[in-house]
């Protein structure tokens, strides 16, 4: 799968092969946590809409993003139903927390950092869909390929908004989160998840 060069340049590293191998060994957890991620992405967009009601462009982009993420949630759970996989809660990976712990607590830094984190999460999702697709059955591989365009646009939307609402240049901040994100995906985790590092003990 060929990803946009700017997206690959944005990320500071590729998903390790060990994670791909674990994804193939745990197809149920992959789909369940993928569905959870789509639901969480929609929730993040809605939370931003409620928190920043004075920013029209953010409201429009996050509204569209939330609808698309919920549509993806519906598509993933439909695939799960056809395959006899029951949707259930899974514990969250440490990935998002490893990024969000660095988000500033005062504005506009809080909004800018939250948007940068959103950009990295969407970009990493896109990269993982592309890495997984060749290893999956035809139906699931085609579905993951179909998600690449929207996920790539989501990361661009988040990044554009971060630059728009910042009170100065944010390249250093993007670089900081890029290094943190690259570290987050190679740190060992206790359980396999869509955004985890390679699990040392899969439960």
Tell me briefly what this model is.
The chain has 203 residues and is an all-alpha fold. The chain has helices spanning 5-10, 17-25, 27-51, 56-82, 95-100, 109-132, 138-165, 171-184.
Tags for this entry?
203 residues; mainly alpha; globular
Question: What topology does this entry show?
Answer:
Blueprint: H1 5-10, H2 17-25, H3 27-51, H4 56-82, H5 95-100, H6 109-132, H7 138-165, H8 171-184
Helix pairs in contact: 3-4, 4-7, 6-7, 6-8
Could you walk me through the main structural features you see in this protein, from its secondary elements to its overall organization?
- One of its GO terms (biological process) is tRNA modification.
- InterPro entries: Ferritin-like, Ferritin-like_SF, tRNA-Hydrxlase_MiaE.
- This is tRNA-(Ms[2]io[6]A)-hydroxylase.
- GO terms for molecular function: tRNA 2-(methylsulfanyl)-N(6)-isopentenyladenosine(37) hydroxylase activity.
- The protein is mostly helical and 203 residues long.
- The chain has a single domain, classed as Up-down Bundle (Ferritin), CATH 1.20.1260.
- Helices cover 68% and strands 0% of the residues.
- The radius of gyration is 16 Å and the shape is globular.
- The relative contact order is 0.19.
Number of domains as seen in the coordinates: 1
H/E order of the elements?
Answer: HHHHHHHH
Q: How much helical structure, as a percent, in the residues?
A: 55-70%
Uncertain runs: none
Major sheet, described briefly? Answer: none
Strand fraction equals under 5%
Under CATH, the homologous superfamily reads Ferritin, core subunit, four-helix bundle
CATH topology tier name: Ferritin
What is the CA-atom radius of gyration, in angstroms? 16 Å
Number of strands: 0
- Outline type: globular
* Structural class by sheet pairing and helices: mainly alpha
Count the helices. How many? 8
User: What's the CATH class label?
Assistant: Mainly Alpha
**What is the level-2 CATH architecture name?**
Up-down Bundle
